[in-house]
Amino acid sequence: MIPQNLAKRLREAHKIVVMTGAGVSAESGVPTFRDAQTGLWAKYDPTELASPEAFARQPKLVWDWYKWRYGLVTAVSPNPAHYALAEMAHLVPHFTLITQNIDNLHQIAGSEGVIELHGNIRRTKCSDKGHIFPGWPDDTAVQPPLCAVCGSPMRPDVVWFGESLPRHELEAATAATLQADVFFSVGTSSQVYPAAALTVEAIKKGATVIEINPHPTPLTPHVTFSLAAPAGEVLPQLVAEVWERAAVAIA
Ligand code: BV8
User: Fold this and answer.
1) Which of 47, 192, 217 to mutate to test the pocket of ligand 1 (most atoms within 8 A of CB)?
2) Which is more confident, 25 or 38?
C-alpha cells in the first residue's frame, strides 16, 4: 500500500527524476553487481575485474567475463519495474530516467532518453581510440578481437572503476537532479560514486527522496520515504494507485 501522503506528493510533483541500479534488473534474473558471482566467476571480485588495470593485465579474462554477462543480459527480458518506469514517464509533466545499469533493459521496456551513467554492454569500443561498434563482435582467433579501424583491442563500452563518467551524461543527470522536486533511488546500494552523489544532492536540496530497496543502504536514514520492497512489486503498484486510479476518478 502506498502511503497517502506519498501518493498526494507524487500527484502534485512537477519534475520527477528516477535513478536505478542493478536491483531494478534483479527480478529479470540479472545478478546484481555484488551478488555472489556464479560458476567460473565465483572466485573473482567484480570491482577488480571492472577496471582498466585488470584489462591491461588480463585482457582475455576481462573480455570473457563481459561476454558471459552479455549472454546473461541478452537472454532475459525487462520486468514490471522497467515497464512501470516506462509508463510513469507519460504520466508526469517532466520525467528523467538515469541508470547505472549497462543491461539496456530500460530501453527494451520502452523508456526513452535514458541517461546511461556507466555505459552499455550492448556496445563495444576499441581501447585505444574509442571507435564504437554495436553489439558483440564474432569470436576471432585473437581474444579480445582487434578494432577493425585502428587495430587496438576491443572492450565493452562501459565505465570501469577509476574511469571518469561520460561528461555529457553526468552533466545532464546532475542538472535534472538539481531541478527535481521528487527523486527516486531504485535498486541501488548507493555505494558507487559519483552516481550515489546524485541522491545526496537531491536530499541536500530538499527534494522528496524515495528509496525503493528491500535492504537498507547508507542513505536510507536520510531519505523522505523508504519503501523496503522489490521494485517489481512497488513500482507497478505506485503507478496504479497514484496515477491510474486518480485518472479514473477524474474521468
Ligand atoms: C570516477 C559498469 C573519477 C561496469 C560500474 C567519490 C567520488 C568519485 C569517485 C569515487 C568516490 N569514492 C570512490 C570512488 C571510486 C569509485 C567508487 O565509487 N568506488 C566504490 C566501490 C567505493 N568510483 C569510480 O571509480 C567511478 N569513476 O569516479 O571517476 C575518478 C577517476 C580516477 C580515480 C578516482 C575517481 C566509476 C564508477 C563506475 C564503475 N562501473 N558499472 C560494469 O558493470 O561492469 S559500477 C557497478 O557497481 C554498477 O553499475 C552499479 O552501479 C554499481 C553497484 O553495483 P551493485 O551493488 O550490484 O548494484 P547496486 O549498487 O545497484 O546494488 C544492488 C542493490 O539492489 C542492493 O542494494 C540490493 O539490496 C538491491 N536490490 C536487490 N533486489 C532488488 C533490489 N532493489 C529493488 N528491487 C529488487 N528486486
Assistant:
1) 192
2) 25
